[in-house]
Amino acid sequence: MHGLKADPTLEPPERYFTLESYEGGVARWCPACGDHAVLSAVQKICRDAQVPTEKLVTVSGIGCSSRFPHYMHAYGFHGLHGRALPVACGVRARRPDLRVWVATGDGDCCSIGAGHWLHAARYNMDLTVMLFDNRIYGLTKKQTSPTSPVGLATNTHPAGAWLPPLDVLQATLGFTNISFVARTVDWNPLHLYRTLQAADEHRGFSFVHILQRCPAFTEGVFEELRANPDLTLLLTHERGIPADSAVERLYKNRLEHDPSDLARARELAATTDRVPIGLFYRNPEAPRYEAFTEVGLGMTADDKVAALEAELDRFAI
Ligand SMILES: Cc1ncc(C[n+]2csc(CCOP(=O)(O)OP(=O)(O)O)c2C)c(N)n1
Ligand code: SF4
Ligand SMILES: [Mg+2]
User: Fold this and answer.
1) pLDDT value, residue 2
2) For atom 6 of ligand 2, which residue has the closest CA?
3) Of 37, 76, 195, 197, which sees the most CB atoms within 10 A?
4) How far is the C-alpha of 313 from the C-alpha of 132, rounded, in Å?
5) Which ranges of the chain have pLDDT less than 70?
6) Which secondary-structure segment (H or E) carries 185?
7) How far is CA 253 from each of CA 28, 33, 78, 167, rounded to the nearest angstrom?
């Protein structure tokens, strides 16, 4: 090798993250549970973005889907039922250097955690929120959730769920200061990947409604939609999420939707003849609460004491 100079452009990267780098424990979800597909998509997104594992954190509440942090090799916080979002906001407030993913179920987010849902959306902190909507309480074995369809026989309503289900997207699109609202399905890995990737890249509260199959307790709920792609309406736009050609070939019913049009997004969420998937709304300008919570980060303890003294001195009499 005498006389050969090292070419820095040929140096292998110091660290390269493979899919295995993000793999945590063996997932204990049922076979064919849609949660597996979401986990794979998130691991691919992290690999493709080369996110250092120590810069990644997943936060969840309680539920099957909330077991997510155990299956990622990253920091994780498996919290209390309904409390995924306040924990995630806390992490975000103190550690702006981390990429924060949130896994929450239809029970976790829309039932016990509903109060946190609307406030976290309004805070618009930089989180990627995945709502795993399997229309049921899975972990506790088949109780009616706020999104269960009318007539679904469950352990709490053996003769069939009674009330009209809560519409997740209509609700979210009605909250104040929202900045990213999308829907995807667990059974189309390309669409799932692109949607979650766009959510991860968006700076703000990126809310993704994932239609998720639960073969154990709501088998068949999404079967017609999955089997007949003509029941899906694919939202496309140059400012939306780029669709892969395979996705466009599958979903022949497509609609150009400008994601900056909130009124139209709300109308689309109310569509009943087909199920729209894709980006409903994005507003990169919505104020993020970090601008407030990050003030003071990076100060030394002495700086903080001095700032506190100065503040208290304003009230000296
Ligand atoms: C405070 C509290 N209330 C109730 C429960 C029981 N519980 C655990 S998970 C769950 C529902 C889970 O449903 P969902 O959030 O939709 O998640 P999935 O299991 O369907 O993924 C309930 C009611 C709990 N653990 N803590
Ligand atoms: S019960 Fe349903 S949601 Fe839970 S792991 Fe099994 S298939 Fe998935
Ligand atoms: Mg559920």
Assistant:
1) 57
2) 30
3) 195
4) 50
5) 1-6, 8, 10, 12-13
6) strand 180-185
7) 36, 27, 39, 22
Number of neighbouring beta carbons within 10 Å of residue 210: 24
Q: Nearest to residue 215, comparing CAs of 31, 38, 65, 71?
A: 31
- What's the CA gap between 299 and 307, in Å, rounded? 10
Distance 58 CA to ligand 3 centre (A): 18
Amino acid at 110: C
| Ligand 2 binding pocket includes 219 (Cβ within 6 Å) | no
Instruction: Identify how many contiguous H helices and E strands the chain contains and give both numbers.
Output: 11, 11
Distance CA 50, CA 19 (A): 10
Determine the pLDDT at residue 275: 98
Measured distance CA(242)–CA(306) in Å, rounded: 50
Q: How far is the CA of 137 from the centre of ligand 1 (A)?
A: 6
Residue with tokens 């736009």: 237
Q: Please state the φ and ψ torsions of residue 41, each to the nearest 5 degrees.
A: -65, -45
Helix ranges (DSSP H) in 57-139: 84-94, 106-107, 114-123
Asked if 46 contacts 18 with a C-beta cutoff of 8 angstroms, the reply is no
Helix/strand/coil for 59: strand
Task: Output the pTM of the full model.
Answer: 0.94
pLDDT of 238: 96
| Residue ranges lining ligand 1, Cβ < 6 Å | 62-65, 81, 105-108, 112, 132, 134, 136-140, 145
Question: What separation in angstroms does the CA of 224 have from each of 105, 213, 219?
Answer: 22, 12, 11
In terms of DSSP H, where are the helices of 148-281?
168-172, 189-201, 223-227, 245-250, 262-269
Using CA positions, which residue lies closest to atom 3 of ligand 1?
Answer: 81
CA–CA dist 190, 234 (Å, integer): 13
